[in-house]
Design goal:
By secondary structure, this protein is α+β, with helices and mostly antiparallel strands. The protein contains six helices and five strands. The chain has helices spanning about 10-25, 55-75, 75-95, 100-110, 125-135, 150-165, and strands at about 5-10, 30-40, 45-50, 115-125, 140-145.
Length: about 170
């Protein structure tokens, strides 16, 4: 089961920097993320979600590939690719995987204007190495998790100690 972790940061660039570090750690197989989203609370109060992957683009590409292959069977590969890409994009736009968008928008309303939160679904991680690499330089504040009480308290303690050092 994936673990939900939401951490608030003072601004969007900081949250995106942490996300980039997590993506790098994922390449090195220190962490496996099912979903990662930067939630921004704009100065005008609106909440914007910055998804880490675009399902529309991925689905359109897959649809174009399958449409082209099916089109080859009927001697109309370009038509098949066009129809497949459109169907894939439509399907991707209607698909929502990972953390529920309405949950993240509600979470974003609790942030102060100009700040951001990073919401991740972690499948697995090498906890000590991930926490060591993130260090305390990002001034994060734990907002919400579905971790056990012990795990959450340990994470809060690590964030508090790292923030105090910074």
């Amino acid at each position: 089961m994936s673990k939900l972790i939401a951490v608030a940061y003072p601004d969007v660039p900081t949250a995106q920097t942490v996300l980039a570090k997590l993506a790098d750690m994922q390449k090195r197989e220190l962490i496996k993320l099912d979903d990662a989203v930067v939630v921004e609370r704009r100065d005008d109060g609106k909440v914007k979600l910055h998804q880490s992957t675009s399902l529309v683009g991925v689905s359109a590409t897959g649809g174009a590939l399958w449409g082209g292959l099916i089109g080859l069977l009927f001697f109309a590969p370009l038509l098949g690719m066009a129809v497949g890409a459109a169907a894939g994009a439509a399907g991707g736009a209607m698909t929502d995987v990972g953390v529920d968008d309405s949950f993240m928008k509600d979470l974003g309303k609790e942030l102060s204007p100009g700040s951001a939160a990073l919401v991740v679904l972690v499948r697995t991680m090498t906890e000590d190495k991930v926490l060591e690499e993130l260090g305390g330089q990002y001034q994060g504040k734990l907002l919400q998790t579905n971790l056990s009480s012990e795990e959450e308290e340990r994470l809060r303690g690590h964030i508090a100690a790292a923030t105090a050092r910074a």
